[in-house]
Amino acid sequence: MTSFAFRFLVFFLISFSAFAQTYPSKPIRIIVPFPVGGIADIYSRLIGNRWTELWGQPVVIENRTGAGGNIGADMVAKAAPDGYTIGIGSIGTHAVNVALFSRMPYDPLKDFAPIALLVDADGLLVVHPSVAANSVAELIAIARAKPGSLTYASAGAGTASHLAGELFKSIAKVDMLHVPYKGNVPAITDLLAGQTSLIFATMPTVLPHARAGKLRALASMGEARAAATPELPAIRESLPGFVVNNWVGFFAPAGTPADIVQRLNAETRSFMSTKEMTARMTAEGARFIPMAPEQFGDFVKAEIAKWAPVVKASGARAD
Q1: pLDDT recorded at residue 152
Q2: 123-237, which class in CATH?
Q3: CA 129, 134, 140, 144 torsion-angle sign
Q4: In which band, very low, low, confident or very high, does the pLDDT at 223 lie, cut at 50, 70 and 90?
Q5: Fewer CB under 10 Å: which end of the chain, C or N?
Q6: Cα angle, residue 8 at apex, residues 5 and 12 outer, rounded to 5°
Q7: pLDDT mean over 124-134
Q8: Where are the domains of the chain?
């Protein structure tokens, strides 16, 4: 190495270190590829408020919806890798969509720097009170007796609620009509109004309605009964092989400095591990699983491998 090249390398490393130490020095934006009111939006705002207090820099939440989350995720992938644009990714945008869509505007592995898993949420199968089912078995019986009569709402093509419906249809061997919406909020609003029959949703978004008697909860969607609803069976007790958990996490554009990624990871873990947040998530049927950026990256790879054959077997397509 020449003396000039050595001096340049030293200068670069010093400049990089100084940059990381002064971060953040301007507003940060968090791109949420789903509408206001869903789990991704809610927890992004909670942690965004915390970062604003901690760093004295505004953290702006931008909801950029469409194409099952692909539009917002693509914005993150193509943003400057400087730590000032990060985004929420989900089981849809970073695991399911690559198998669901024939064309993807980004590569969920190569185009992102994983930061941290934010929330892993239990799901809940709920029906409108007009549906005469009080159990998964009764729901299946109705669906088999009147094929196509039941409609299941989803937060959009490629979301966990869509995939759960297709998986349910495949395992139970029933025919239900899929009605996609642009997010959980409009999907649940129409379900409450009786415009659709049921939804497979993240527990924090529908549990309050079930507890208020506006919807009827039939079962949870995880490996075992959920801590928030121990009185309800898991769907897999009636349909072996049915397990769907929704997760969301933070991602930065590929090439974002490692020091910044590590700092965002550490601050996410610190906030999400507080007693206040732990109590909130437990009550809502959600949890925080601490992961280093590298572990989160491995988690995403495993999720892609897990859901690709499921999507293929279900025959579901988004385009």
Answers
A1: 98
A2: alpha beta
A3: negative
A4: confident
A5: N
A6: 140
A7: 98
A8: 23-120+246-314, 123-237
What is the amino acid identity at position 128? Answer: H
Q: What does the alpha-carbon distance between residue 308 and residue 100 come to, in Å, rounded to a whole number?
A: 8
Place of tokens 């965002």: 264
pTM over 0.85? The answer is: no
Q: What's the pLDDT tens digit per position in 2-51?
A: 655 555 455 545 444 444 568 999 999 999 999 898 889 999 999 999 99
pLDDT band at 229 (very low <50, low <70, confident <90, very high): very high
Mean pLDDT of the chain: 91
Residue 75 scores a pLDDT above 60: yes
Q: 23-120+246-314 and 123-237: same fold?
A: yes
